């Protein structure tokens, strides 16, 4: 596979994360968690727009042409893209040990979002994975350390979740009609890999693409046997997430952090690949 990695857009994030591609608009949405911004890149015009948030913003899902839903520190909020106004939608109660982290929507329009323990060096298993259906919030998993990258296989029969401090990727059976996950097992172990598993996406063949935080790369894995089949090295150490985009869905977009201090740290990177990704789903409000 020929890789021609380049930066995209001009924004330099403190902590870039959660890239989501809007195929209808040919736009890429992503967040700067600590910069408290949502960035929108138009792939047709190369125009770049920014929206400020009142607190750390950690993930997002599309709703329609003028609205997205995002997770801030302790709750879900809706952003009006025409006015820039952001309004509370649903708040977590009494969760001072954790904050929201990564999240995505499933094929039925549910927003799955996890939290992370705030002690980065010595995390405790106080975090959870939540599922938002309309205005109904359900706690799906408990005793997580740092719920991170997540995704579904192409048939929407399997669910994947990373718990970063454990350096493992877990697989569950997924009932898309009920929105239930069960039969947890480890499919990928990062024990021999540089860095820690962070954000993740899934391609049309069901392989997982995982960002290596403090590992300087994105790797592609076969979840059936836990083997790494390919990797892309970046000129920055702290790589945070990855998703597919472009009308052909054969381009990947990679978010990074400024933490390493390299000249291109915090920038958004992109390259064409010879595999297509899966589309993102919208939140059903």
Automatic annotation (TrEMBL):
Question: Which GO biological-process labels does this protein carry?
Answer: L-ascorbic acid biosynthetic process
The cross-references to PANTHER family, in alphabetical order and at most eight, read: REGUCALCIN (PTHR10907)
Task: Report whether Hydrolase shows up as a keyword of the record.
Answer: yes
Put simply, this protein is called Gluconolactonase
Q: Specify the domain of life of the species encoding this protein.
A: Archaea
Hydrolase recorded as keyword = yes
**Which keywords accompany this UniProt record?**
Hydrolase
Might you give the EC number(s) for this enzyme?
A: 3.1.1.17
Catalytic class of the enzyme: hydrolase
Q: Which GO terms describe its molecular function?
A: calcium ion binding; gluconolactonase activity
Lineage runs: Archaea, Thermoproteota, Thermoprotei, Sulfolobales, Sulfolobaceae
Domain SMP-30/Gluconolactonase/LRE-like region, first and last residues per copy: 15-257
